[in-house]
Amino acid sequence: MNTYRISKRKALIVAFIIICTVILGSIIWSLLLQDETSDTFNPVDQNELTENDDKELLSKEVKEDNIVTGDKVLEKYLEIKNQEYAFLVATNAFLEQDKEELVNWDEILYIKYILSKQDQGVVENIYTINGRLVPLAFINYNHVLDDTCLFQGFSLPYYEARYGFIKDSESSIYGDNIEDIFPLIQSKKENIFTIYEESSFLEKLIYNNEGTLLGYAYIEQ
């Protein structure tokens, strides 16, 4: 009888030790998993840092597409006015306007198109507020880019200008009849170029191929 009690006590002690060992092991395993998780780099963050090795500077400036009001667009223009930044605007009225009809307007010299991601030899098409499919184009205010077309980043929400700014009113593309700074004037020319404060615009950033911020682009929504 005493032998049975002793054996039972030993069995209980062994069982208790096993249970404690399992619990302790579980705690240690959980701590190890937490350490591994904290050291794991988020692949999404890695993609946001750079599209390739020569664009590391993008990590400080790249952001998701941003919707802003027209008054914020005008505020941004005043903020960067006369600084070396391009300021591109595409109002809905301008997008729907037949560009050939602008031949006598100063703005015709400052139109910039966006090339398609699928075919960089073709201009991107977008739908306007009114549902019309039109080429994606902007008027380049402030400092003028020496590009007729801009490229789109494949994995990041930005545009790329590869030729920088024109200098001293001399453009390698347009010749010497274009100004290197084109001011934004709210002239209300048939409302084609007017930025209304209550309107909404999609904001995108513009970089060169070295990852330096060159300006801002706004598409009316």
Automatic annotation (TrEMBL):
<keyword id="KW-1133">Transmembrane helix</keyword>
<protein>
    <recommendedName>
        <fullName>WG repeat protein</fullName>
    </recommendedName>
</protein>
<feature type="transmembrane region" description="Helical">
    <location>
        <begin position="12"/>
        <end position="32"/>
    </location>
</feature>
<keyword id="KW-0812">Transmembrane</keyword>
<keyword id="KW-0472">Membrane</keyword>
